[in-house]
# Entry
Amino acid sequence: MPSVTIRDVAKEAGVSTATVSYVLNDSRRVGGETRERVRQAALRLGYRANITARNLQASETRLIGYSWRPTPTEQFNPIVDKFLQSIAEAAARHDYRILAFPSMDVHQELSAYEEMMLIGQVDGFILTNTNFDDERVLALVSNHFPFVSFGRANQDWDFLWIDVDGAAGVLEATRHLVSQGHLRIAFLAWPEKSQTGHYRLQGYLNGMEEAGLAVDTEWIQLAGNFYEESYAATQRLLALPLEHRPSAVIASSDLMALGVLNAAWNGGLEVGRDMAVIGFDDAPIARYMRPALTSLAQPVDKIGDQLVSTLIDELNGQPIGERQVLMQPTLVVRASSATPYSDRS
Amino acid sequence: MPSVTIRDVAKEAGVSTATVSYVLNDSRRVGGETRERVRQAALRLGYRANITARNLQASETRLIGYSWRPTPTEQFNPIVDKFLQSIAEAAARHDYRILAFPSMDVHQELSAYEEMMLIGQVDGFILTNTNFDDERVLALVSNHFPFVSFGRANQDWDFLWIDVDGAAGVLEATRHLVSQGHLRIAFLAWPEKSQTGHYRLQGYLNGMEEAGLAVDTEWIQLAGNFYEESYAATQRLLALPLEHRPSAVIASSDLMALGVLNAAWNGGLEVGRDMAVIGFDDAPIARYMRPALTSLAQPVDKIGDQLVSTLIDELNGQPIGERQVLMQPTLVVRASSATPYSDRS
DNA sequence: AGGCATAATTTAAACGTTTAACAATGGTTT
DNA sequence: AAACCATTGTTAAACGTTTAAATTATGCCT
# Structure
């Protein structure tokens, strides 16, 4: 409360406030003796420049806004905290901070962005869960407000984004299964309108084609990002006649893979031997599932890092190297897919 | 960038900036006709008051600092994102925002707090993972800086905190097991120095005493908050001679309970029938474990809500109703402990 | 008509910095 | 000796609000 201002320091050192500012910020030559006197005075009084005043004068906030959609209780988002941590640390390295605001629905979220933009609460945004026709992207682009996005939107929109190459990841997963001897591989997909889901599905299709395996239409099951739907979808897969029944399942998320695991177990199958399962995200629990789940890990730290530094370059008007970046997920092989499979059909 | 200021509005409406401020903030009577003119002008220009300037003048930031320790990859913290969401939403309702900064080690964290305090980056803090002799609490208290804590510290320190009554929770869990017919109940504890772990252990001891059951020293196993240690501890429990071997295990966290589940299964036991297991936190995955895990749910939303409103009351110099609050966890009974147990020893 | 309370509006200071422009000083060059 | 330059310091404006105090306008009462 009794905070000490630059004026107090100036008085204490017997100089003007300008001199104090110059000394403390090293922004101009100052005589050696004066410099020392100012430093001593500042130290003695425990002076630290008030950040609000500094921000006002610089017309910036050194704050980056980040909002996310709360995860429903029956789901889990395994990377939200890791992601937040990574952007916050990266930001701190550049002397920026993260302002976190969750937002319920899309409209509330959009108006939150607009409000914060107008009142100058943040210098830029980091978006996540970006999708086709994303209103936020439209709004920010048309306002020329700086932002970066974790996730792509429409192909022909030019803005700064980084995404995980889901197609490449699932392609690798498919190859892995094929190399283990699997011929009938199923895929649990997200709804049509999900961009991310779309790419992951595409990776599966590419992998099957590459291996010269025909895809039974029954093998592609829509299951939202829900455990229950995933469980039910697996039951449908297991109910297929033997020669059509898949011996491996790739799920679009670890939560869904968990549904597969449990459905298979309850159906009397031993995953890892009778059936292979692969998830996506490499959630912390993946390694503790029974059996331990093979999954695709996203390089969350790297993504956070690069998102932040790209945004900050943009804020400083520096040229951006790559305006769009695809990062490769890595397949973490565990017991759920580690046993070679010899077809018994 | 070409942001419109209060001066622009004043000019547009042909009045002074003071009048504009009065109208827009409704902080003083203004003539009906003028009021309307100002409103129109503000609307026409799309004016929104700059928040940094407002904050400087009010010498506040309307920001609440929140820091957390990153969870190691082999662990998971099931409530960190839910908690963040709940405080951010509660804060938004009062027109405050959350500034999130993770911090690696204790010392870095402390200096981050001090720095932010001095430069006036936030109006107050929300602490988590508070523990005995917590340096942060000491520092903030001695600087008279406003903060609230999720978690207790030393008994005789007077500061604002809310905590979950771990003892009551585990007591309830113990009673539940006793009522299911269990006589030999084990407890997987956190290290000595953990305050939270201490209370949870105490709840177990109380429950056993209340039921008149002697506690075998082997039944209390220290296992950090780690899966592996928990798994190993369970193996030790299962290796006990039959008449000493516990038929139920309470773990101090869901992660640990998962270790128990897997160790029991690999040891040939069917949890839910041969053995009961209870966790703590009611993580999203608890319901999807095999078998579904009974666990103690923390009222995270309520806690976040009340932490924020208490802090804001403190910031506004309002009297605080309860300076210390214990909230009750609720036992969510699932398959892992739902089958009555008839002792066969 | 003068006095006076009340209402409406403006002026100007304040919040705490940074920084462009200016002034003083002393030394060097022509 | 005058002009010039480099160095060091100060003055004052600016960032965009809010608000206490001063000023002006309005209506009412005697």
